From TrEMBL:
Organism: Prevotella herbatica
InterPro entries found in the cross-reference section: HAD-like_hydrolase_sf, HAD-like_sf, HAD-SF_hydro_IA, HAD_2, HAD_sf, PGP-like_dom2
Molecular function per GO: hydrolase activity
Full protein name: Hydrolase
Keywords, ordered alphabetically: Hydrolase
UniProt xrefs under PANTHER family: PHOSPHOGLYCOLATE PHOSPHATASE (PTHR43434), PYROPHOSPHATASE PPAX (PTHR43434:SF26)
Gene3D superfamilies to which the protein is assigned, alphabetical: HAD superfamily/HAD-like (3.40.50.1000), Putative phosphatase, domain 2 (1.10.150.240)
Length: 212
């Protein structure tokens, strides 16, 4: 199957920011709750909205607490990088007239404050953030919002992500899902395709020549 619309999750798919995210959560939790979490105890924060994480942690005012997290995150921005090959793959997709979208649990402010993502952000046609729909991932709403905004159909759309939330979002919207394994290796997550490296994306896109 070749797809015209290629949608991407950001964290763990386009950008390698796990270290920055985990370090920020450690710092913020210690400041707010006086508790220390080891890094492997914080994997649950990856892929979900920050406000939701604060609610899970029991913050009295989750939005204000997440504002503190966002402030601390700026101190770790230099730890964020694009995954190797992502910039080239996105450029090839754009040059071959694909429609590119972002489906993310980030806010719009978080998009604009990521130096790594800014290297390729201009190549994307549509960005659906956590505040753009009533229900975030794993609900179908973010992908359905993209389909509604662009006129795309589930049949010609592929969503690429690295988490169970991404997979469920695709399933709920009847869009095929490709699991990106270059961040954390293979996982037991439902998917139509399993991608070992970013260049594998080109095997499932509409283009005259997949090789670069």
């Amino acid at each position: 199957m070749k797809y015209k619309h290629i949608l991407f999750d950001i964290d763990g798919t386009l950008v390698d920011n796990e270290s920055a995210v985990i370090n920020t959560w450690q710092q913020t939790i210690e400041e707010l709750f006086g508790k220390h979490f080891e890094k492997d105890e914080l994997n649950f924060v990856l892929g979900i909205p920050g406000v939701t994480t604060m609610e899970k942690l029991g913050a009295k005012n989750s939005e204000e607490a997440f504002d503190l997290w966002s402030k601390h995150f700026q101190e770790h921005r230099n730890e964020i990088t694009l995954f190797d090959g992502i910039d080239k793959v996105v450029q090839v997709l754009k040059q071959t007239n694909h429609s590119l979208g972002l489906i993310t649990s980030r806010t719009h402010d978080e998009l604009n404050n990521d130096d790594a993502l800014c290297q390729i952000f201009h190549l994307f046609d549509v960005a659906i953030c956590v505040t753009d729909t009533v229900n975030p991932k794993p609900s179908a709403d973010p992908i359905l919002a993209y389909l509604d905004r662009t006129g795309a159909t589930p049949a010609d759309t592929l969503y690429i992500g690295d988490s169970a939330y991404d997979s469920q979002c695709a399933i709920n919207s009847h869009v095929d899902f490709a699991l990106a394994t270059w961040s954390n290796g293979k996982k037991d997550i439902p998917c139509k395709y399993e991608l070992e490296k970013p260049f594998d994306i080109l095997n499932y896109s509409e283009m005259p020549n997949s090789s670069i």
